[in-house]
Design brief:
With 375 residues, the protein is α/β, with parallel strands linked by helices. The protein contains 8 helices and 22 strands. It has a domain of 210 residues: FAD/NAD(P)-binding domain, CATH 3.50.50.60. The structure holds flavin-adenine dinucleotide.
Length: 375
């Protein structure tokens, strides 16, 4: 296809953290970058606990209009839902918010449509006002609750239970999870540390409780009681936070030839889809390694490098995967931010350093390349 530019046209499908960071690293002198997203702003899937407990604080770095990112000034963003891919003509098929169809041609396609894993992370079309209204409504409902049951043992559930207990000390907050320990994909030491902090915050921990999950659990906050298949009596609660890790890849728009048996995008450690040299995948939808960890291991920069290297005939870099989950679990706490490495060691960054150095310098300036203040 001939187009009026000699730059390589890269379509980034999905503008969550991985898609945006990949776009930010693509050299605008060489690449014409188009990003397609069902949301007109970054709606991060990270930090559920802060989103529910302190939504304004969370929004500062997790709910950000695209035009505030300086390094995305060269990226043309399209607010639309991806509904199909034509590998032969190299076009993605879109549905615009008014329902009309559209297409975007590409020379190179980056698939970064992430996963759905609960009411806070959904792939459908939304306006900014709709996203903000949902964040506000969830927060207000939880702030008014006398009792909250959080169901799940992963990072989203644990961070919700701890931060809600801290934000609403008058409310009862219970965390129900099926194993003896939470955070099963992290090193054991991480749970030891986090469980201690949860108890100190007033969260009541209930190991060995496998909840019966209603079909609607993925869609919205629920209402108690919570029933268990492990024999305990149902637990009453004014509000239920379902964070049970029922993760589904947002890949229904892709041909099955690109997907593995679970629906994730087949991708090598070089982030390229085998047999489709113009297609790459990154982030939570990419089956790069058993933990699908390319997002947290910052493969976005490597992907931008590999796209250029492949076009030049240079060798591609391979993505180094960790065997265990790592990173932050609870988000910033009064005494600082703890980041656990893959060996389970916790590195605490004191709160003043988080507020004065980590957030403004490391996150906004280094990782994102500059973020304009809100207008
Ligand atoms: C800098 C950084 C630090 C991190 N630190 C940690 C950490 O400490 N601990 C930790 O656990 N994890 C960490 N992570 C990882 C993080 O938890 C997630 O893995 C990451 O946010 C997933 O990003 P994603 O882009 O793959 O998915 P998402 O952020 O979910 O983005 C996917 C986007 O695609 C859109 N989309 C989906 N389907 C369609 C469609 N059909 N049409 C149009 N748009 C669609 C969605 O609406 C969404 O906007 C980190 C990630 C980054 C980048």
């Amino acid at each position: 296809m001939t187009r009026p530019t000699d730059r390589t046209r890269v379509v980034v499908a999905g503008l969550g953290e991985s898609g945006l960071l990949t776009a930010r690293h693509l050299d605008p002198r060489r690449f014409e970058v188009v990003g397609v997203s069902s949301k007109p702003l970054l709606v991060s899937g990270q930090g559920l606990g802060h989103r529910l407990a302190w939504p304004e604080q969370w929004a500062r770095d997790h709910l950000v209009p695209f035009d505030r990112y300086r390094r995305l000034d060269h990226v043309c963003t399209v607010h639309a839902e991806l509904v199909g891919l034509d590998l032969a003509t190299r076009e993605v098929l879109l549905r615009r918010p008014d329902g009309s169809p559209a297409t975007e041609p590409y020379d190179v396609l980056v698939v970064a449509t992430g996963v759905t894993n609960g009411f806070w992370r959904r792939p459908g079309l939304q306006t900014r006002a709709e996203v903000e209204a949902q964040v506000r409504a969830d927060h207000e409902r939880l702030a008014a609750a006398g009792s909250v049951a959080v169901v799940g043992g992963g990072a989203a559930a644990v961070s919700s239970a701890v931060n809600l207990a801290r934000a609403h000390p008058g409310a009862r907050v219970d965390l129900y999870f099926p194993g003896e320990r939470g955070l099963p994909l992290h090193h054991d030491r991480v749970w030891d540390d986090v469980a201690r902090r949860a108890s100190a915050a007033g969260t009541r921990l209930h190991p060995g409780h496998r909840a019966v999950v209603p079909d609607a659990a993925l869609d919205a906050l629920g209402t108690g009681p919570v029933a268990f298949s492990t024999g305990q009596d149902p637990a009453p609660a004014d509000v239920v936070v379902w964070a049970v890790g029922r993760v589904r890849p947002n890949t229904g728009w892709l041909p099955s030839a690109l997907l593995d048996e679970q629906g994730y995008v087949r991708s090598g450690r070089d982030l390229r889809v085998p047999g489709h040299e113009h297609v790459y995948a990154v982030g939570d939808c990419a089956a790069t390694d058993p933990l699908r960890s390319s997002a947290r291991n910052r493969a976005d920069k490597q992907l931008a490098h590999n796209i250029a290297a492949a076009l030049d005939g240079r060798p591609l870099r391979r993505f180094p995967a960790a065997r265990r989950r790592w990173g932050e679990v609870l988000g910033p706490q009064p005494d600082g931010l703890t980041i656990h490495d893959p060996r389970g060691r916790g590195w605490r960054i004191p709160r003043p350093v988080v507020d004065r150095v980590l957030d403004p310098v490391v996150v906004r300036r280094v990782i994102w390349g500059g973020v304009r203040p809100p207008s």
